[in-house]
């Protein structure tokens, strides 16, 4: 039965998918320090407190300035594997049954780590994830503040590993880097049979214009963040009618403004396949159940609406219809037995 009030326990046990999770954003301070020592990389901090104190950001760009330098500790295939496995243990704890894992190869190839090192390390974890009870897939993101040519070169490298990648995305600094910059590379990815998503971060310069471009021009299958879509009722109807998912991240949003809880609930109630995700859980110190609970604590919502968010997380995924139906049944069984 549905509980009368939403508890963290109910939310944690609810079967769910995570669709907006950057593997590089799961690097917890403990692992960061251990890898820094193992690979003899000076990250400027030597204690967990120092690492945590460096997590000061109030905008996307100030976040990215902390985020990218930390990746220097990732050097070898085992490092990428270990990072992903650490997250998958967390995922199991939060009853995340399926996750589409974002990763940023250019953040590593640009500092001399081979593409193969990155993809093989992450894929190693994907192969082992089933044994942990978490189904996984990899989604390769291009860095939008790098050139379109660099994205095209990265796609070329990825196509030699086509079987390891389910889709492509676009992240990093949106300012001055609209979706249209990557029209060709996304077109090529589509032709290769890859699913398409892209970040339309909150409250960007020309957010709604970028959302329109992503939907109508690039024809993405999903939007990451994208809550500014509420500014345009016609675009809201467009995503609702096509079942296009929005992967929202309330705690991450809260770091740079408000959680956008009103927008998330407005979209949910309008029938849009909106989902709740953790984005970069090690940096925002919030895994997906914590994000869902934070939403419920700060905005009035019902247990049935929380269950709908979990249902949307599978519906907006790139799983087969059979797998989606199996997970929907898990949700039905969980609620019936609660
Ligand atoms: N937006 C843009 N780039 C990112 C994000 C995000 O939410 N997380 C990690 N890289
Ligand atoms: Zn993100």
TrEMBL record:
It is an enzyme of class 3 (hydrolase). The record marks 225 as: Important for catalytic activity. Its EC number is 3.5.4.2. Residues 15-333 form the Adenosine deaminase domain. It catalyses: adenine + H2O + H(+) = hypoxanthine + NH4(+). The keyword Transferase does not apply. Keywords: Hydrolase, Metal-binding, Nucleotide metabolism, Zinc. SUPFAM superfamilies: Metallo-dependent hydrolases. One of its GO terms (molecular function) is hydrolase activity. NCBIfam families: aden_deam (TIGR01430). HAMAP family: Adenine_deaminase. Catalyzes the hydrolytic deamination of adenine to hypoxanthine. Plays an important role in the purine salvage pathway and in nitrogen catabolism. Belongs to the metallo-dependent hydrolases superfamily. Adenosine and AMP deaminases family. Adenine deaminase type 2 subfamily. This is Adenine deaminase.
């Amino acid at each position: 039965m549905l509980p009368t009030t939403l508890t963290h326990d109910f939310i944690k046990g609810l079967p769910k998918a995570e669709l907006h999770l950057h593997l590089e954003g799961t690097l917890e301070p403990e692992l960061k320090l251990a890898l820094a020592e193992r690979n003899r990389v000076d990250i400027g901090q030597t204690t967990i407190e120092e690492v945590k104190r460096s997590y000061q950001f109030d905008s996307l760009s100030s976040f990215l300035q902390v985020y990218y330098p930390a990746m220097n500790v990732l050097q070898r295939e085992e490092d990428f594997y270990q990072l992903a496995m650490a997250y998958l243990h967390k995922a199991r704890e939060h009853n995340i049954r399926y996750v589409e894992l974002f990763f940023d190869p250019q953040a590593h190839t640009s500092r001399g780590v081979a593409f193969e090192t990155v993809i093989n390390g992450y894929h190693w974890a994907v192969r082992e994830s089933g044994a942990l009870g978490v189904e996984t897939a990899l989604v390769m993101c291009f860095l939008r503040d790098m050139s379109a040519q660099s994205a095209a070169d990265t796609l070329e490298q990825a196509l030699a590993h086509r079987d390891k990648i389910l889709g492509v995305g676009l992240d990093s600094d949106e300012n001055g880097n609209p979706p249209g910059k990557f029209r060709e590379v996304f077109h090529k990815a589509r032709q290769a049979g890859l699913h398409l998503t892209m970040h339309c971060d909150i409250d960007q310069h020309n957010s709604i214009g970028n959302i329109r471009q992503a939907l109508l021009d690039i024809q993405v299958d999903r939007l990451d963040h994208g809550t500014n879509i509420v500014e345009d009722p016609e675009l809201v109807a467009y995503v609702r009618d096509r079942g296009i998912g929005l992967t929202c991240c309330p705690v991450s949003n809260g770091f740079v403004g408000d959680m956008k809880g009103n927008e998330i609930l407005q979209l949910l109630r309008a029938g849009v396949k909106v989902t709740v995700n953790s984005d970069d859980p090690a940096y925002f110190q919030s895994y997906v159940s914590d994000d869902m609970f934070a939403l419920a604590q700060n905005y009035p919502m019902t247990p049935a609406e929380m269950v709908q968010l979990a249902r949307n997380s599978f519906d907006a995924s790139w799983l087969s219809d059979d797998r989606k139906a199996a997970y929907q049944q898990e949700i039905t069984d969980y609620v019936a037995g609660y």
